[in-house]
């Protein structure tokens, strides 16, 4: 039995566009919206961690150099998201519409439009560890 393999690097599919000398991948989904009681964080290494929105306490958005960040305070954890154009993600977060957020390596940033959300880092820390470290 033989199989045919299609390598993305060898061809451009109908879902991809070439625009201003860069390839845009519409399949590169940074976050998903919908009715959900939880939010799932998907890390580059394949790890995932889920939090129930009932544990959502507050969120804060700011900017460091050219990167934006969002800090999400849950009852037991602090989640820090870093990336580009995070305003839309923040607005959806505070309305509890986000089902998942995926981080990607920064080298893929050129595959999305400059005005689109792109997450390069998600850091999840347990508040108890942070409190003990600060003492």
Distance between the termini: 63 Å
Shape: globular
Percent in strands: 35-45%
Unreliable residue runs: 5-26
Mean pLDDT level: 82
Q: Helical segment tally?
A: 2
Q: Write the H/E string, N to C.
A: EEEEEEEEHEEH
Strand element count = 10
Description of the molecule:
With 135 residues, this protein is mostly beta strands. It has one domain (29-134). Helix content is 12%, strand content 44%. The chain contains two helices and ten strands. The protein has a four-stranded mixed sheet, with helices on one face. It has a four-stranded antiparallel sheet with strand order 6-7-8-10. Strand 1 (16-19) and strand 2 form a beta hairpin. It is globular and about 35 Å long. Mean pLDDT is 82; it is low at 5-26.
Task: Write a concise keyword list for the protein shown above.
135 residues, mainly beta, four-stranded mixed sheet, four-stranded antiparallel sheet, 2 helices
Concise description?
The chain is mainly beta.
How are the secondary structure elements laid out?
Elements: E1 16-19, E2 22-25, E3 31-33, E4 38-42, E5 48-52, E6 56-64, E7 67-74, E8 77-84, H1 87-94, E9 98-102, E10 118-126, H2 127-134
Parallel strand pairs: 4-9
Antiparallel strand pairs: 1-2, 3-9, 4-5, 6-7, 7-8, 8-10
């Amino acid at each position: 039995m033989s199989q045919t393999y299609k390598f993305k690097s060898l061809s451009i599919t109908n879902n991809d566009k070439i625009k201003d000398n860069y390839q845009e991948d519409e399949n590169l989904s940074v976050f998903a919206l919908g009715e959900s009681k939880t939010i799932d964080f998907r890390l580059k290494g394949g790890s995932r961690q889920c939090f129930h929105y009932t544990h959502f306490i507050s969120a804060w958005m700011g900017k460091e150099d050219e990167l934006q960040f969002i800090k999400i305070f849950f009852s037991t954890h602090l989640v820090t998201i870093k990336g580009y154009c995070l305003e839309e993600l923040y607005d959806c977060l505070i309305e509890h519409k986000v089902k998942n957020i995926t981080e990607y390596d920064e080298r893929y940033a050129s595959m999305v439009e400059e005005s689109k959300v792109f997450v390069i880092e998600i850091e999840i820390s347990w508040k108890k560890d942070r409190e003990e470290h600060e003492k």
